[in-house]
Structure formats: C-alpha cells, structure tokens
Design a protein that fits this description.
Order of helices and strands of chain B: HHHHHHHHHHH
CATH superfamily of the largest domain in chain A: MetI-like
Largest interface: A-B, 84 and 84 residues
Number of strands of chain B: 0
CATH architecture of the largest domain in chain A: Orthogonal Bundle
CATH topology of the largest domain in chain B: MetI-like fold
Order of helices and strands of chain A: HHHHHHHHHEEHHHHHHHHHH
Number of domains of chain A: 3
Number of strands of chain A: 2
Number of helices of chain B: 11
CATH class of the largest domain in chain B: Mainly Alpha
Strand content of chain A: under 5%
Radius of gyration of chain A: 30 Å
Radius of gyration of chain B: 22 Å
Helix content of chain A: 55-70%
Distance between the termini of chain B: 39 Å
Strand order of the largest sheet of chain A: 1-2
Strand content of chain B: under 5%
CATH class of the largest domain in chain A: Mainly Alpha
Largest sheet of chain A: 2 strands, antiparallel
Shape of chain A: elongated
Structural class of chain B: mainly alpha
Helix content of chain B: over 70%
Shape of chain B: globular
Oligomer: heterodimer
C-alpha cells in the first residue's frame, strides 16, 4: 500500500466512513424513514387492501367485506396468541384518517369472530361500514408510505376526499412550536451578536499582555459543560437566588421576581452558552484585518465612525456570518437548557421529539418532527452557503 | 470610545465568567442552601459526593466512557485525516461532509435514532453502545484538528523518507506522526471533552450501569437541587479547566 496513491488514501478513510455509515448515517436514515413508513394497517388487513385496490367510489365491493372479516379473524387469533396488539395499532393508525376507527376496528374484530354472515356482522358492529368513509381510510392507510405525519407537523391533514386541509384547532400545535423554536434561536443569535461583536474587537485590539486573560474569559466558560452552565443559571435565577437577592437589596423590587421556568431564563442561559461560538469566529476574522487599512482610511480623512462603518465592519462580516450560523444552528437543536429552565410554553422542537420517543413511544411522530428540525438546520446551512459561501471563512 | 469598548467587553466577560464562578464557593458551603452569604465553609458536600453511589460511579464512568470514546475516535480519525490530506480522490467532498455531519445534526435526533437502532440489537443500555455513540460525536473534532496540523507539515519530508528507503508505514510513524502529534493529542482531548460534556445521547441511551456525570446532574437538577450537585458541578469545572489547559499547551505557539 502506498500512502500517496488514491487507493491508499481511500483505504485510510474507509474505516471511519464505514463506522459513520453503520453507527450514524444508517441509524438516522432508518429513524427518519419512520416519518413516512406506513405498515401498521397493511400488516393487519392485507386482503382488504387488495380487495379495495381497484375500487374507486360508489358501492363497496362484496369481496371487501369477506376480506375484512378474514383479515380480522386471523389478526385477532394472532393477537390473542402472542399479545402483540396489532389490531389496536392498526386501529390507532386508521383513527388518524377517520376519527372513530380506534374503537370501531376492534369492535368489528370481536363481532366477526362469532359465526354468521360476514357482511351482516360487519354492518352490525358499526353503521359507518355502510358508508365509503372507513373503506377509504383503510385504502389510504394501506401503505407502504404516507405523508400524514409530515402534514401533521405543519398542522395540515387530509380531508375525507384526499385533499389537504387545516388540522382542527385542538391538534394544530406544531406550527407554533416551529415558530417558537425559530424565534428563540433568532433572538439568541441576535443577543450573541450584540454582546459578542464588541468583545471580539476588544480582544483583537487589546494590548498583547491583556489578550490571553480576555481570551481566557471566553474559553473557560466555553469549555465548561453545558449542564454545569445550565445549573449555574438555575442557582442564580431561583427565587432566593443571587439575582433576586441583589434586586431586593438594591430596593429595585419589593417581591422576588419569578425568574425561572420562563422564556427569560431560557434565553439568558442560551446566550451565555452560545456566546463563545460568536466571539471566536469574529475574533479569528478581525485579527486578520490588515492594520494598515484603517490607517490608510484615516490618512484619507475618514473619521473614526466612518472608518468603522466603511472599512472595518465590512471586513469583519465573514466572521459575523460564521458566528451567526454556528449559534443559530446549535440553538435550533437545544434540548437540555429549555427542559430545565423553561416552562411548558418554552419547550423547543427537540423536546417534543424526545417526548414522542420516550413518553408516548410514537416513533413516527418523533421522526416526522426530526425531519422538520433537520430541514430547518439544512435550510439555514444552505442559505448561508448561498449568501456567504463556505470557502470564505476558515473554521475558527 | 476606547473606554466604552473596554467597559462593554469587561461587562460581557463578567456575564460569561460569573455564573460559572458562582457555583464553586457554594459547593464548599457548611449549610445546605443554595444562596449567599455562606454560613461557613466545609467539605461536607464533597464527602457526600465521594460516599454516594449516585455520584461516584458516574464520575468513574464518565472518565471511562470519555477515554474509550476518545481512543476510538482518534484511532479512526487520524488515518482518515491522513488519507484526506494525502491524495485527492473522487467523493472526497462527500466524505468530508459525512465526517463533519455529527457536528451539524442536533443531538436529540442522534439520541433517538441510536435508541431505535441499538435497542433491538441489545446495544442500548450498554457501555459499548455509549462509547460508539460518543466516538461518532467526537470524530469530527479529531479529523479537523489533525487536518489543521497536517496543513503545516511539509509532504516533501515523506518523499525524503521514501528516498532514504523507508516504506510508507515507517514514513508515517517515524516522520509524519511525531510532527503532528500535538494535533493528534489535541484532537483526542477535544473528543474526550465532547464525551464528558454530552448529556442528551446519554439521557436516552444509557441504562443504570452507564450513568455519567452530566446524566446524574440532569436528574439532580430536575429534583430538589442539593449542594452535592454543586460539588459535582465544581468537579466538572475543574476537569474542564484541566482539559482547556491541556489543549492550550498542546496548541501553544511554536509547536507543530
């Protein structure tokens, strides 16, 4: 093997790429696939779906009744034997298409298990079976893929005819969560810029002896664990905490302020945690600015403000862009800090992904919200690549 | 003008430093409340930390997971960086994107995806699963740091070694590696720090046997906060300081 050769180079990179493929790319791909995968109904009602394949509208074919009865009998026997609960899962999936199916399907399964005419017993277990609606729901949920979860993350749903409409108000929460996530991230980015930009300039222009100390003031918190910094803010902002004690002592307030479990706490801590990601890229760019340029501008008669706004500020913009990108993209995925410092109305997309994965074990919705989050991250990165380009700034 | 910049800058540094520094004295409090002034100084919370089977195993486990995942990330990352640096090959940009992806994908997506993938294969709630996950998260830092070191390494030296009869393995281990060692070590430190800091993946992936310090702190903060949490936080700050010093020393001017 020769290191200089192409083949050698590929062989050296291959173990890492393979590990990342197996341990990172494929698991994430398989997880995201669940956002569109649709097999709960297909695995329980395969014959019914086949019988309905050519049916469009009008009279429900006789064969569909027989197929449904046979499917349900088989699935019920399997459920009773293994305790798998496949009918319940299929019913839950169908309920997303047509409310009421959650109870109708198990009820029908119990009925058709008894002897008699299939069609009569199906109709006896629910009036709805005489209408096309439940049959349409079965066909729509027949898989193999569905867009209903992705639509749900945008507060949209299919209507009975298959068109797209607004979700009912009580389940239309996701657009708000997305907007909240974007809003919190944008605010955090703006505050980081306002605080970080002057600090970067100070460090860049400070006397050589002061520089390491100033930089250390940024690097120490930067290296401190996120959870420790979140804990620090819990201590500072609690009711008997230092901030309230100071405010009471100074006579600014009479009662301790509720500073914790709200948007303020989340934002302050997020800005604190993300600020170094703004300072360091801006500093890297500002340090490289040729000191002769502002002097040249001054010798041409430009005032201090003019030098800053016409010369220094434009030259520092690549660093500002990189800092904003780093801060905003990281802010979008925040989980721990809002979970500990925020109230129910301050939780971001990441919290809801965790909620669906952990509490309700609805991998499909967790995956659909992950697609939304990754889409937001990807859009921001792509927009940055379009507007600024990635070759202008070295990673700081 | 200058004065205003100094005032603003110092205020921002105070905002950055004070919250971290506020936890430290609290952990030495003789009382049991999270506020100042302290009723007196004592080491009781550290005694509690080191006597507790909630905290002490988590500290050891954090160090174990950190070392193992940093070692794995370095073992995979250094050859990859060398390959990426040495030759242009088709798909190099794509390979770079794949390697950097763990930096851009939100931790929650990684956590839930790995929980789903590892669960049926018996890897969730295992040491190996957690180490593998953390190694993936640390590997971009190793590759980026080593690539930066390699950019200052003159490839002519490798050719000179070959001309003197060294085979490529010797060329790499005897000529290149010693020169980029500070970068390799810094990359390993970054990977270790990434694992030590990581909370979200641990929350979802680690069973009772793999609790780490951040995981226990999350649980402790969700509960009634005791001052033992502050002792744990102070220990983590000390660990971070150690790592920061190591990274700064490895990357000090005049080396590599």
């Amino acid at each position: 093997m020769k290191f200089g050769s192409r083949r050698g180079a590929i062989l050296l990179v291959a173990p890492l790429l393979l590990s990342l493929l197996i341990g990172f790319i494929l698991p994430i791909g398989a997880f995201l696939w669940r956002a569109v995968a649709d097999d709960e109904v297909a695995s329980v009602l395969p014959r019914s779906i086949r019988a309905l394949a050519s049916w469009r509208d009008g009279e429900v074919p006789e064969a569909a009744f027989a197929a449904l009865a046979e499917d349900l009998r088989e699935a019920r026997a399997r459920d009773l034997e293994t305790g798998a609960g496949a009918i319940a899962r299929a019913a839950a999936r169908l309920n997303a298409e047509l409310p009421g199916m959650r109870s109708l399907l198990p009820a029908t399964a119990r009925r058709v298990a008894q002897p008699g005419d299939d069609r009569a017993r199906i109709l006896a277990s629910g009036e709805a079976w005489s209408t096309p609606a439940p049959w349409r729901a079965i066909r729509r949920a027949g898989g193999p893929v569905t867009d209903f979860r992705l639509l749900a993350t945008l507060d949209l749903k299919h209507d009975a005819e298959g068109g797209i409409e607004q979700a009912p108000a009580e389940s239309a929460i996701y657009r708000g969560i997305l907007l909240r996530t974007l809003w919190i991230s944008a605010s955090a980015t703006l505050f980081c810029l306002l605080l970080g930009y002057p600090l970067a300039w100070l460090i860049a222009t400070a006397p050589r002896r002061a520089q390491p100390w100033l930089l250390g003031g940024v690097l120490l918190p930067f290296w401190t664990s996120l959870i420790v910094r979140t804990a620090a803010w819990m201590v500072l902002l609690q009711k008997e905490g230092i901030v309230n004690a100071a405010l009471l002592g100074a006579g600014v307030v009479q009662e301790p302020l509720p500073l914790l479990l709200n948007r303020f706490a989340v934002l302050v801590a997020m800005v604190h945690i993300l600020l170094p990601f703004m300072v360091l890229p801006v500093l890297a760019v500002v340090q490289e600015i040729d000191p002769r340029l502002p002097r040249a501008a001054a010798s041409l008669g430009a005032g201090r403000l003019r030098i800053f706004f016409r010369v220094l500020l434009p030259l520092s913009l690549p660093g500002v862009g990189a800092g904003c990108l780093l801060v905003f993209v990281q802010a979008l995925g925040f989980y721990v800090t809002p979970a500990l410092l925020g109230g129910p109305n301050d939780q971001m997309l990441a919290w809801f992904i965790g909620f669906y994965a952990n509490r309700t074990v609805d991998w499909g919705m967790a995956a659909a919200l992950s697609v939304l989050l990754l889409g937001a991250v990807g859009a921001v990165i792509a927009l940055y690549g379009r507007l600024v380009g990635f070759d202008k700034v070295r990673a700081a | 003008m200058r004065l205003a910049l100094w005032a603003a800058g110092i205020a921002v540094i105070a905002f950055l430093l004070l919250p971290v520094l506020v936890v430290v004295p609290l952990s030495f409090s003789a009382g049991s409340f999270l506020h100042y002034p302290l009723p007196g100084l004592s080491l009781r919370w550290y005694a509690a930390f080191f006597a507790s089977d909630f905290w002490l195993p988590a500290l050891w486990n954090s160090l174990r997971v950190g070392s193992a995942s940093a070692a794995l990330a370095t073992l995979l990352g250094v050859p990859a960086a060398f390959g990426l640096w040495r030759a242009e090959f088709p798909g190099r940009r794509l390979a770079m994107a794949v390697i950097l992806a763990p930096m851009a994908v939100p931790a929650i997506v990684v956590a839930v995806a790995l929980l789903l993938a590892f669960g049926p294969r018996g890897l969730a709630n295992t040491f190996a699963g957690l180490v593998a996950a953390h190694a993936m998260l640390g590997v971009p830092f190793v590759v980026v740091t080593v690539l930066a070191s390699l950019s200052r390494f003159d490839p002519v030296l490798l050719r000179a070694a070959a001309a003197c009869g060294a085979d490529p393995w010797h060329g790499f281990f005897r000529v290149c590696l010693p020169r980029i060692m500070p970068g390799v070590a810094a990359g390993a430190v970054f990977a270790f720090a990434t694992s030590l800091d990581e909370t979200v993946v641990v929350l979802f992936l680690a069973g009772p046997g793999q609790r780490t310090l951040p995981r226990q702190m999350f649980a402790g903060l969700n509960d009634e906060i005791s001052l033992t949490v502050m002792a744990a936080a102070t220990l983590m700050v000390a660990l971070s300081l150690l790592l920061l010093a190591a990274a700064a020393w490895l990357r000090r001017p005049g080396r590599d």
